[in-house]
Amino acid sequence: MVTEMITVKLERQFLHQIDDIVKKSGYQNRTEFIRNALREKIDETKLKQAMIDIDQFRGIFKKKKQTTDKELHEIREKVFWEMHKKLKSKSQV
Predict the structure, then answer these.
(1) Exposure check for the chain: N or C terminus, fewer CB within 10 A?
(2) Residue 23 falls within a domain, yes or no?
C-alpha cells in the first residue's frame, strides 16, 4: 500500500493527550495511534450509514400488511448485497 504524508496542526494540549495515550496504550508512535483512530472513525461512519440504510428498508415493511417468508428472504438478500456493494466501494477509497 502506498502511503502519502499529510500535515496536521494540533494544539499543544491535545498533542500531549495523544502522547499520553500512545505511551499508556502501547502504540509505537503518534502516527500509529492517529491511523488507528481514523480507521475506527471510518468504521463507525460506515456502521451508522448501514443502520440508516437498514432503517429505510424497514420502512418498506411497514407499508405492507403481510410479508411472506419468500419476500422476507428476497429483501434480506437485496439488503445484504446493497450493503456489501457500499462497504466494498467505500473500503477501496
Answers:
(1) N
(2) yes
Domain count within the chain? 1
With a CB cutoff of 8 Å and minimum separation 6, the contacts of 20 are none
Tens of pLDDT, residues 49-84: 888 888 777 666 565 556 677 887 888 888 888 888
Distance CA 53, CA 48 (A): 9
Does residue 1 lie in a domain region? no
How does pLDDT run across 3-32, given as a tens digit for each residue?
999 999 999 999 999 999 999 999 999 999
Is there a contact between 12 and 18 (Cβ–Cβ < 8 Å)? no
Burial class of residue 51 in the structure, from the number of CB atoms within 10 Å of its CB (0-12 exposed, 13-18 middle, 19+ buried) = exposed
